[in-house]
Amino acid sequence: MAAAQAAPQPGTAPAPARPLTVDEQITFLKTARVESSRKIGKGITGALRVVLTDGSRTHEAAFQSVAEEPRFDGRKRAGELRFTDHYRYNIAAWRLASHLGLGAMMPATVERDIAGKRGALSWWVDDVLMDEAEREAKDLQPSDVRSFARQRQRMAVFAELVRDTDRNKGNVVYTKDWRVIMLDFTRAFRLETPLRSPSQLAVCDRALLAAMRALTRDDLNRVLDHAVTGDETKAILTRRDLLVAHFDRLIAERGEKVVLY
Q1: pTM check: above 0.85
Q2: Neighbours of 141 (CB within 10 A)
Q3: How many Cα atoms sit within 13 Å of 102 on the Cβ side?
Q4: CA-to-CA separations, 62 to 43, 50, 232, in angstroms, rounded
Q5: How far apart are CA 131 and CA 128, in angstroms?
Q6: Helix, strand, coil: what percent of the chain each, to 5?
Q7: What is the tens place of the pLDDT at every residue in 108-162?
Q8: What strands, in cross-sheet order, belong to the sheet with 180-182?
């Protein structure tokens, strides 16, 4: 007869489950069974908080199915004639951020059907401390101010690259160890190409600049895999060229050690 499993000692808790790798998170998001869902409550796109399980692990995810395409009626919405609000941009942003080395700044995201709708399903970030609105209201700063500022600068560069028009304070959250997490890109990937706030881009991550410089149309077609249109792909590359030229100009004026980190 096999020996009986030892009972846990009083006052001890079971060891926490091993964190999943990003690839494992992707597989879980694609295949785990939906146990329940409810409205998140924030935002205006009807996002859901979904409970998933694979039989041995249970975890939550955020689901957005908004799919509003441009209306060519001559009227502006949110200040845009070609206003678009689409879940596919969350998928595109995750894929592009991962390709550029910024995957840790976004939750893993896949395309999936939930409750009869097609949308973007993103890994729920468990250890969130607060969002940017709360941080500003409480006037808080982490102990490592330089690392925090560099993370926020990476976010600013990426937002310019994808021309994100909705990087509001609720779409930027911070974990308990002060990692910057970018959420909700449904209003990104516009066709307009001028940089929105180049004066705010004073420094850049050296690896990020190199990754942007090396980016090709073939890379985008492979990485984004139809999550954006051909015109949107062209706009990404045009903005990339402007970003690279912007930082090259700053390097020439101020020196590489000042501009790149």
Answers
A1: yes
A2: 11
A3: 32
A4: 12, 6, 25
A5: 8
A6: 40, 20, 40
A7: 999 999 989 999 999 999 899 999 999 999 999 999 999 999 999 999 999 999 9
A8: 128-131, 172-175, 180-182
